[in-house]
Amino acid sequence: MTAIADAPSPVDLLPEGLLAFLHCPTPDAWIDWALDNPELLLIDHAQCEKKAASTAMSLLYRYVDHPLLLTKMCQLAREELLHFEQVVKLMEERGIVYRHLSASRYAEGLRRHVRTEDPERLIDILIVGALIEARSCERFARLIPHLDDELAKFYRSLVKSEGRHYEDYLMLARRAAPEAIDDRIAFLAAREAELITMPDTAFRFHSGVPA
User: Fold this and answer.
1) Which top-rank group of organisms is this from (predicted)?
2) Would you say 70 and 64 are in contact if contact means Cβ atoms under 8 Å apart?
3) How far apart are the C-alpha atoms of 110 and 195, rounded to whole Å?
4) Nearest-angstrom CA–CA distance, 43 and 148
């Protein structure tokens, strides 16, 4: 992968408040790991887009009495499936075969903290969704200056959509809560930061640092 000229600063691409929402930036060691594994980066990216669409659909089925959530999740599912299609097409053009990869511990590591009874369950799922989208957005932005022109342009477009998804998830979490949830957000964000900075043996889009 080659650097593009005059690449915008990652911070300039990110939605306001996103870096403060995340409790740590992606470590430089992960960026180096990603650049050493361009095929795995795209394959797992495709899987992440598909999983994101699936999460949105599951919320559509479970929480039919939340009209705004239904609207936002319909939009999100469509966008994530479009992104999945775009990543698969890009992979085909580059001769990369799409295949199954085992999941990283990231999403499961966050889900284990989700409470079991509603409305707390829904609130936690939405906060976790916001964290995943925010981290994806931040990682796309961090990668852009190191990528070839085609992939950098694609990831730049994803920063905008993933940033909007982060904002939508967080807004829905606050609306679903009967009281302030800042402490809950801080708790889950701290767990997310732990997962991002812990050693991992297998590279994934949401893995920690190389062991």
Assistant:
1) Bacteria
2) yes
3) 8
4) 17
Instruction: Output the six-digit token pair for 134.
Output: 């925010």
pTM for the model stands at 0.94
Q: Which domains does the chain have, with CATH numbers?
A: 28-96+103-205 (1.20.1260.10)
At which residue do the structure tokens 């957005």 appear? 137
Residue 121: what are its φ and ψ, rounded to 5°? Answer: -60, -50
H-helix segments, 2-119: 10-13, 18-21, 28-36, 38-62, 67-93, 106-111
Residue 166: which of 47, 9, 13, 46 has the closest Cα? 13
Token pair 């990231």: residue: 106
Structure tokens at 141: 């932005």
User: How confident is the model over 105-145, as pLDDT tens digits?
Assistant: 999 999 999 999 999 999 999 999 999 999 999 999 999 99
| Of 25, 40, 49, the residue nearest 204 (C-alpha) | 40
